[in-house]
Structure formats: C-alpha cells, structure tokens
C-alpha cells in the first residue's frame, strides 16, 4: 500500500522520459548478482542452501572486505568447489573504472561503468578527520529538484546494493595503494536513497558490519529530499546513522518551487516526520539549506527558517550555491551569507557554512553536480 502510494506520488514529480544509456551497452553483459549485495546472514543462508558450511560466510567476508581480493580464485582457504560455485553464481566485479580524476585538494572523482553500460560517479573527499566517500544510489533521479543536473534525464534505474557497496570497495582498493582507509561514507551522490530504500538498507548493513567494511554508523550520513513514509520507516530502524534533510526553503510555496517533491510531501507533514525521527532516535537531524541568490537567502527567510525548525534537535548546513546554468540561480553575496547565518545563531540554532574548495559547489541532498564535488560536508 505504502509503495503504491509512493509510486503514485513520485509520478507527480516531473521527469523526462527514459532514454538509452549514453554509453553503448556491452554486447554480452555479465548480469550475475554481485556478491557485495549479500549481508552476512544472507550469504550464510546461500551457503546452507548450496550444501556448504555457513561459517564459510565469515571467511568469504574476510576475503571481500579485509583482504579485498579481486577474484574468487584468490580465496585460498575455500575449497576449489566452493570457489567455482561462487564464480558461477556471483560477480565479484560489476563496476569497471572508466576514469578517475584527482583535483588539487586531493578529491578524486571516479566514473564507473555498470554491467549494463550505464555509468555512475563516486567521489572520494579528503578531510582532516579522514577519507569520505560519496556514493550514488540510482542511475539518474526522478525527484526533479530544479537546481540539479542529475535529474534532467529522469531515472534510468535503481542501483543494486552490491553496486553501491562496490563503489566503496573500489575506492578503498585505490586507498590501499597509499595505506589509507575509507573512514566516512555519505549517501549524497546521484539519486534519492529513500527511493531505493531496500538496496540502501542492505548497503548500510554491509558497510557497517564489523566483518564487512566496518565503517561506524556515526561515520555514515544519509540524505533525503523528503520522502515522508520512508523517513518514518528509517526512524523506526533506530540506527545511529547521521540523517540529513535537503530543506532549502522555509515555507511550502518556495520549497515546491525549488523542489517539486514538496507538492507531494507538504512541508508541515515533513516537519512532523522530522520531529518523529528526532524523538524516536534521540539523534539530531541536519538540515541542508542551499542559498540561492535572491530566492531563499534574505534575513526574512532566515527568520522564517528559525521559526520552522524551532525546538527541533538539529544542525543547519548552509550551502552557498554558485551559478546553476539550468535555472540561472546565482550566488548569494558573501555578506548576505553571513547575515543569514547570524540570524540563525541569534535564534539559538546550531549552524555552519559549508566550506568550499572548488569553484563549483553542490547543494540539493548535498548532491548537486557530484562530478564537481570538492568540498567539506561537515
Ligand atoms: S538533488 Fe538529489 S533528489 Fe534532487 S533531483 Fe538531484 S539527485 Fe535527485
């Protein structure tokens, strides 16, 4: 029922008809399921069903996430028969690196090709507190935020959990070369993670598991544009994962201009869901607020925002947005950014301005132009 409602509501959101993938499909794509899609308990189950001992699952996880092998053949403490079974049933590599580019500040952008020919981006950001990977959850996006280039071609497909996990594994393999570790993960790349909820949850469970990538829950952040039923569901999971909402406007009218999803999920109901989340989990929420020159960045807007989020355990992340060619959004002048921040501070709200490294800056669910991403997220 909930899924039907979600589908119907999301259909209200403007999106362009699906097109062929830009890159030519491989002639004979290997469409085996990614081994990275499986949680430890699912792998144990699979082993049992296939006449193998369930304890082998922990050994396989060790090969995948600790030793980070690139072929099943390398899993030398497994029998040849089991390695063959794994090879017949699963793919160990579903992403191939098309290109990786490193910027001056150490940010590395990876362009990966999927088995069916689509390509996705993943970004490694270097911070003083560690290495953070920003993952993509969908090929394209159907949410339709007006400031986001990723939605212009609509949604092509959801990523499978394994395809999201493998993004982190691939980045970790690159970091292995310099003896460094992925310490943080942000689910803020292309796509709306709550529109691909089950895969996102499996991804979280695998990367957080001590036998998986063992990335602490408090080092993982998920961001949504505001799909209300999924916010309730996520709250009920009672995880310690950081949660961010792309808010971007202090009232319904302005929010639905910037983010058509707000027509389906009204701001008052959204704030109710956010209060439910903070009450249920005891955790704070991060409000992402992109400052678009002349649109949502006045001191009156800051006062309105303060009232909207009053009493909510939260933090506001102000994101000064540079020129957005699709909509002619312009940058908020520096003094106005500080004036906006000052109002929030005066009203007792915990606020930061996102530090910028490059000439471009992203907004959205922290997701605008992941390919240009080059800044701190917190
Ligand atoms: S900002 Fe995020 S949710 Fe909005 S259209 Fe872009 S990718 Fe989708």
Automatic annotation (TrEMBL):
Binding site for S-adenosyl-L-methionine: 191-192, 223, 246-248, 322
GO molecular function: 4 iron, 4 sulfur cluster binding; metal ion binding; rRNA (adenine(2503)-C2-)-methyltransferase activity; rRNA binding; tRNA (adenine(37)-C2)-methyltransferase activity; tRNA binding
Enzyme class, spelled out: transferase
Top-rank taxon, per record: Bacteria
Species of origin: Lysinibacillus composti
Additional detail: Reaction proceeds by a ping-pong mechanism involving intermediate methylation of a conserved cysteine residue.
Name of the protein described by the UniProt record: Probable dual-specificity RNA methyltransferase RlmN
EC number: 2.1.1.192
Family membership noted in the UniProt record: Belongs to the radical SAM superfamily. RlmN family.
InterPro entries for the chain: Aldolase_TIM, Methyltransferase_A, RlmN_N, RNA_MTrfase_RlmN, rRNA_lsu_MTrfase_RlmN/Cfr, rSAM, rSAM_sf
